[in-house]
Amino acid sequence: MKLVSYDRGAGSEPGLLHSDQVFGLGAALRAAGLQASSDLPSVRAFLQVHGDQLPDIAAAVGPVLDGGALDPVGVLDSVKLGPPITDPLKVLCVGLNYSDHVGETGRAMPAHPDLFAKFASSLIGPYDAIDRSDVTDNLDFEGELAVVIGRECGRVAEGDALSYVAGLSVLNDITARDLQYRGTQWLAGKAVDRATPFGPAIVTLDEIGDPQTLDIETFVNGTRVQGSNTRHMIFPVARIVSYISQFLTLSPGDVIATGTPEGIGAKRTPPLWLRPGDKVEVVLEKVGILHNEIH
After folding, report:
1. Which of 31, 77, 149, 267 has the fewest CB atoms inside 10 Å of its own CB, making it the most exposed?
2. What is the DSSP secondary-structure string of 186-199?
3. pTM for this model (two decimals)
């Protein structure tokens, strides 16, 4: 099941992406006999109610969508997608989570996940323009796997942690390096308004399987600048979720970006900064692709 948020001009609505068509989530649930009340207002609201039932819902909704019993909102190319979670309570990020990236930064190998935060105001849709060239001259890319929490998660063991994950998505941790390096804290460079592409969908774990087997690549103007596999994470998804949950209760719809592999623009000679007109893609196997242009 692929959960999305779309906008037909009256605000964000939750939906399902199925065979390159977008369907209203509430309508699909009603057609499958799973919900009789009014539509849920967001994907996060859906997860709050149904986050522990995702495989069963996928099994019930799939035949409805395959059978043509429900009209789509539109085909994917004609529907404006926003970030799949538009209203997260928390956007948490892991830095330095691939050993090759740690090496290119010259830092010591971390003993624990290195965490920082973004905010809902940072997130944009999977195909939106990144209009931040007026904020920084050192705009950089970081392709990442993003985890979305499906049910409340507090002090869970690593062996149980994946059962609290709704699914995976793609995130580009666009960073203003000059702002990041002004001090010892990363917030200024990482939480820039409307500069973090996220999406296109949350793909539930039943469609993916092991999150530590996925190829991830970033391209700038068609040139591959990052390439790795999630098996090379220092801290795998289950460990990250468990670690955070020991001191911070995770809620349905919370987003965790899990770090980027080597190849960032700041560590190239000369540095590769994103400029207006550049096109950036992040491709995550089994999950999706972000396409964004710098303005």
Report:
1. 77
2. -HHHH--TT-EEEE
3. 0.97
